[in-house]
Write the structure tokens for this entry.
Amino acid sequence: MDVLLKKNVDNLGDKDELVSVKPGYGRNFLIPQGMAILATESVKKMHAETLRQRSHKAEKIKAEAEATAKKLEGAKIQVKAKVGENGKIFGSVSNVQLVESINAAGFDIERRKIKLIGDAIKNVGTYQASVQVHKEISITIDFDVVEG
């Protein structure tokens, strides 16, 4: 029996995937729980059209993400922090402050998409972070921590 999954199902497949299952499992569990629908010919045609449209949109989104990544690599990002003697920062710089600086520079990046590279940032200087712009595009950016 072929079914179209409406939700991610562990050990079976992801959403919008056509899978073959035993008839009892499909009729008695997947379909009543709202996890799948029966894959008739019309459902398969609609699914193919939906995938075609999604792939077009996904290509457009990926192209925009690549453009953003190129701009972000060339951008000069400065994170301002309160500094004491000897260039030591009060506390440390986290990805929250980095996101605020990136967004102030005109980019729209989520906090959870940024990972600082290396140890905790407790001094003034130049550091690196990994930014995931798209699920397939990840870049490394340099940023400066300055007194502010």
The first strand starts at residue 2 and ends at 5. DSSP finds three helices and nine strands in the chain. The mean pLDDT is 90. The CA atoms of residues 4 and 87 lie 59 Å apart.
